[in-house]
Amino acid sequence: MSNDHAHLSPFRGLWSVSIGGLLLGGLLLILDPATELKECPQYIAGGNGDFSAFRDSSWDIYLPCLVLVWIIATVVEQAIGFDEVSRADTAIRTIAAFSVLFVVSCCGIAPLLFTCRT
Asked: CA–CA distance from 80 to each of 4, 8, 42, 56, 94 (Å)?
């Protein structure tokens, strides 16, 4: 049995989190959603009601779907398992991946969906 621990990627088990996070971050930079109430259309127009934080309100559905795909891809990647890797290393990477998912989706993306819904 060969010892290939030196050849294992440091990102093993974290590819979907890192690549998906970069893609979602780039998408949010492109979409440029309202992050404060003062940037919302109802605040600017002086009205009240449910408006989207995005210029195209269909992103209120697309963005949570993309986040769900990102979460599923990460769960699948963690469930695959890795040969010749200790259980402690796998557990640490899984905890790190799910921590990043939780913080980004609940504290970063979810508030964007409710910014203009006052």
From this structure: 19, 15, 46, 37, 11
Residue 101 in tokens:
């998912």
Distance, in Å, from the CA atom of 22 to the CA atom of 20, rounded to the nearest integer, reads: 5
The residue behind tokens 């796998």 is 90
Per DSSP, the chain holds a count of helices (H) and strands (E) of: 5, 0
Report d(CA 54, CA 84) in Å as an integer: 46
pLDDT at 1: 47
pTM greater than the 0.90 cutoff? no
Domain ranges of the chain: 12-114
The tens digit of pLDDT for each residue in 13-29 reads 788 899 999 999 999 99
CA distances (Å), 5 to each of 12, 81, 116, in order? 12, 15, 50
Distance of CA 40 to the CA centre of its chain: 23
Token code pair at residue 99 = 């921590």
Task: Classify residue 88 as exposed, middle or buried by CB count within 10 Å of its CB (0-12, 13-18, 19+).
Answer: exposed
